[in-house]
């Protein structure tokens, strides 16, 4: 790492080269770190996490209403986890080097753009890995595309945007944190916030709901549910809970619930009841509409740009940092 950083400083001192050239120099450095310093290890880790989630909740994704809600939340969390781990230490681990090279002519915007391009590369690979894992583990994927022609590609774009937005948030934390230890200490807190304020999986007071708009998970799982046509899926939890009462005996040693369920099964009414239950529990936010997906993508992109802008602004004042 030392040789790479020294070479970068030397290149920057040669006449204060332009923004594009500096971006390419740092981009080359980041890809060398990916190959020679084991930064590639985030990719197999992504595959393992995706495999575990697919094994536990993947079978219910886009199959039932409740299963889709739970699985969409889980896959959004995978993306957030991947994004955080990609860049949570990327700046703070070389903060003294960045400060020195800034004084030697480094443009902070070039440095950030190089990280953006490199992290986009990682995030795209991770999104692709999740889809491949889902494919090999027979997880059902969206069937009807809303924005692009291919539903799987559309799903992949959503996974990428969730991961990239989280990645840029972690990059922002990395520009603020004094040390890698501090950054890794902050990360669990951010994860908890993303989990609790997803706006769907946990019941929150109505006055707190506006804060869910600040989280990546809210827009990510909303897009996934919309792409999977959440509102048209059957709701099975009510049926499963009620079915447990089938053989409950009442007065006179009778089984009134058994009579009802036998009638339903005899007349093949189960699927109709599941769909009727779903109709009563539809979520307007998850409407199978291109506008919903566009809005979610726009919010993820907007937050990504905010995090990038804040990171650039903070590093512009790195010379005044006495740490």
Task: Furnish the topology, listing elements before pairings.
Elements lengths: L1 H12 L5 H18 L5 H16 L7 H23 L7 H9 L4 H29 L14 H26 L3 H17 L19 H12 L9 H7 L12 H11 L3 H10 L10 H27 L7
Helix pairs in contact: 1-2, 2-6, 3-4, 3-6, 4-6, 4-7, 4-8, 4-9, 6-7, 6-13, 7-8, 7-9, 7-13, 9-13
In short:
By secondary structure, the protein is mainly alpha-helical. The protein has helices at 2-13, 19-36, 42-57, 65-87, 95-103, 108-136, 151-176, 180-196, 216-227, 237-243, 256-266, 270-279, 290-316.
Radius of gyration from the alpha-carbon trace, in angstroms? 24 Å
Which stretches are low in confidence, meaning pLDDT under 50 for 5 or more residues running?
A: none
Helix content: 55-70%
The general outline is: elongated
Give an overview in words.
It is a single chain. By secondary structure, this protein is mainly α. The protein has one domain. The chain is elongated, with a radius of gyration of 24 Å.
Short descriptors:
323 residues, mainly alpha, 13 helices
